[in-house]
Design a protein that fits this description.
There is one protein chain. The chain has 15 helices and no strands. It has 414 residues and is mostly helical. Helix 1 packs antiparallel against helix 2 and helix 11 runs antiparallel to helix 13. The radius of gyration is 23 Å and the shape is globular. This is XK-related protein.
């Protein structure tokens, strides 16, 4: 697919799969714990909000998973997606209706990864890569449809009550770790489609994790602070920005899904993600769009912060008001600086020459033999996860094009 192919599955990929599952289970457990605490204390409103966020996120994720199963039916003959549920439509439908399709994908990915990493079984590598790439996208969707709103809710409740209990602190920590880690996991999954780029090392992954954390946390804090003084306007604020973001996604003519209904679900979900963090969705250079987005988010967060400062209770907020007022914009600005530093110094920039498919050329009828060899290689090559490959191409097309133009210019000079 336009030069994109899969990198080989390694023990580090298996470790990321395991850690992603652990983070997911811990996040779900902490959410259930918090919801049960609200119910026991008699805070039925917050209990209902928590359950609603959990159900909304689960339904959205299951919908994406089900759409992708329908799109990938043709891959079953090649034994790429080795999931029994996908080979049994009724079982698959039942699992997704019961909100278990996402969890079943996790279990299958771990099993396939174990077969590849420990047992060294042939033929399972592309299955686990296919599964983990879909899981990285599903986890990202789950993160911004549930973890980010819940993190905002927990922060708002602590500000509203002017107190923080242990369960709330644990939930906030779990949500922050889950959000930042899933963004890194998604980024690593994208890079596996780029044979021309070096894989992301631990230090690079940590820096990537750090600047995402420093950009998302101030945004969440600004929304929570605004909600603590004008709680009835938070929904209006979200809907206004969400509509603007949906229009922006639509104007970029995305084609991630294979159906019209699925594509609009994707655009609505991207708009939800943009409320908290940047997410590139279209081909071309991203610097301009990223600059517009961060400038807009800085302006919006500043308005939210100023509104909170104007309407806050000076007496109750005195212990932390000045600290938060200074920390929120400074952390966001520092996060942008670390992001710039990452792409300047820590972003893997090693480019390798593209590998070309070997052609068998004989002295007699060489053209016919070469075409037959290339056709055989193409038929034997396992299919690529089109969705994630397309995202990788869109995300890196601007950088790749710039580097190719630079290389062509140097070659012309030489």
């Amino acid at each position: 697919m336009d030069g994109l192919r899969l990198s080989r599955y390694s023990w580090l990929d298996f470790a990321f799969t395991l850690s992603g599952v652990c983070a997911y289970l811990f996040d779900v457990g902490s959410d259930v714990w918090v919801a049960s605490e609200f119910y026991v204390r008699g805070d039925l409103f917050w209990f209902a909000v928590m359950v609603a966020l959990m159900l909304l996120s689960s339904v959205v994720v299951q919908a994406f998973s089900w759409f992708w199963i329908q799109y990938d039916r043709d891959l079953e003959e090649k034994n790429v997606v080795l999931v029994c549920a996908e080979q049994r439509p009724r079982l698959s439908c039942c699992l997704h209706v019961l909100q278990l399709g996402f969890f079943f994908r996790h279990v299958t990915a771990i099993w396939q990864g174990f077969r590849v990493w420990w047992r060294k079984e042939q033929g399972a590598e592309y299955a686990v890569l296919y599964l983990t790439h879909d899981l990285s996208m599903l986890r990202l969707i789950e993160t911004f449809c549930e973890s980010a709103p819940q993190l905002t809710l927990m922060t708002y409740i602590m500000l509203h009550d002017n107190a923080a209990r242990t369960v709330q602190c644990v939930s906030v920590a779990a949500s922050i770790a889950s959000i930042a880690w899933m963004v890194v996991d998604y980024h690593r999954a994208l890079r596996s489609f780029l044979p021309d780029k070096a894989k992301q090392a631990w230090l690079s992954s940590f820096i990537y994790f750090l600047w995402n954390l420093m950009l998302i946390a101030p945004r969440v804090a600004a929304v929570a602070l605004f909600a603590s003084v004008l709680s009835h306007f938070v929904a209006l604020h979200f809907l206004a920005l969400w509509v603007v973001f949906v229009v922006w996604v639509w104007r970029q003519k995305t084609d991630f899904m294979d159906s019209r209904a699925g594509e609009w679900l994707y655009r609505a979900t991207v708009a939800m993600i943009w409320y908290f963090s940047w997410f590139n969705v279209s081909e071309g250079r991203t610097r301009g769009r990223s600059t517009i987005y961060h400038s807009f988010m800085m302006a919006d967060s500043t308005v939210l912060l100023v509104t909170w400062w104007w309407y806050r209770d000076p007496e109750n907020t005195e212990p932390y008001a000045r600290i938060l007022a200074a920390a929120v914009p400074l952390v966001y600005a520092f996060g942008l600086l670390v992001k710039f530093l990452y792409y300047y110094r820590f972003h893997p920039k090693l480019w390798r020459p593209r590998e070309r498919a070997p052609a068998v050329v004989l002295e007699t009828d060489s053209a016919r033999v070469a075409v037959e060899a290339a056709t055989q290689m193409e038929s034997e090559a396992p299919p690529t996860n089109r969705r994630m490959a397309k995202h990788a191409k869109n995300f890196y097309s601007g950088v790749a094009g710039a580097r190719r133009r630079s290389s062509d210019k140097r070659n012309s000079v030489m």
